[in-house]
Design brief:
The protein is mainly β and about 160 residues long. The chain has one helix at about 1-20; strands at about 20-30, 40-50, 50-55, 55-70, 75-85, 90-100, 115-125, 130-140, 150-160. An 8-stranded antiparallel beta barrel has the order 1-2-4-5-6-7-8-9.
Length: about 160
C-alpha cells in the first residue's frame, strides 16, 4: 500500500509541474487465468507535452498507475502516440513497462515486471479535454516462466493542462 501511495504522489506532483494532460479511467479487468479474480479497474495517467508533432501524429512520454478492486497495482512509464483523424477523433497507443504487485496469489501475472500496452479511440471536446475508450493488456512478454496476462477495457477522461 505504501508503494501505491508513493507512486500516486509522484504522478500528481509531476502533473502540476509540466503536464500536458492527466487521464482518469475506470473499467473492468479480465485476467487470463480462470482462477484469477476479474474485477473493476481504475487508472490515472500523466501525458507530458509532445516531443514530436506532425500534421496528425504526435508522440510523448507518460506514466500510468492502475489499481483494481482487489488491490493489484501496476505502475509504468513509456511512449505514447496519438493519431488525429476526422477533425476531432483520435487513436491512441502506448507501451509502458513497469512494476506489478498482485494483492492475491490468484492474480499473479508471472512476475513483477509487466508491460502495459494500450489501444484506444477518442473524441476531443470543445474545451480541449477528451473522452476515450481503451483496451489494455498487461503481460511480462514471456520474460518469466509463466505469462498469463490481464486485459482491461476502460472509459477515460483526458483533462488537458
Amino acid at each position: 500500500m505504501r508503494s501505491f501511495v508513493l507512486a500516486l504522489a509522484v504522478l500528481f506532483a509531476a502533473t502540476s509541474a509540466h503536464a500536458q494532460s492527466v487521464v482518469f479511467g475506470a473499467g473492468y479487468a479480465d485476467f487470463s487465468e480462470s482462477d484469477a479474480k476479474d474485477q473493476a479497474a481504475f487508472s490515472v495517467e500523466y501525458h507530458h507535452r509532445p516531443f514530436y508533432e506532425a500534421t496528425r501524429l504526435s508522440a510523448t512520454w507518460g506514466g500510468a498507475l492502475t489499481v483494481d478492486e482487489a488491490g493489484d497495482v501496476h505502475v509504468g512509464a513509456g511512449l505514447i502516440g496519438t493519431y488525429t483523424f476526422a477533425e476531432r477523433w483520435f487513436v491512441e497507443g502506448s507501451v509502458m513497462p513497469g512494476y506489478f504487485s498482485e494483492s492475491e496469489e490468484l492474480n499473479d501475472l508471472g512476475g513483477s515486471f509487466q508491460i502495459r500496452s494500450l489501444l484506444g479511440v477518442g473524441y476531443t471536446l470543445n474545451n480541449g479535454n477528451k473522452v476515450s475508450v481503451a483496451i489494455t493488456h498487461k503481460s511480462n512478454a514471456s520474460t518469466q516462466q509463466e505469462n498469463p496476462g490481464v486485459n482491461s477495457v476502460l472509459l477515460r477522461y483526458h483533462l488537458a493542462f
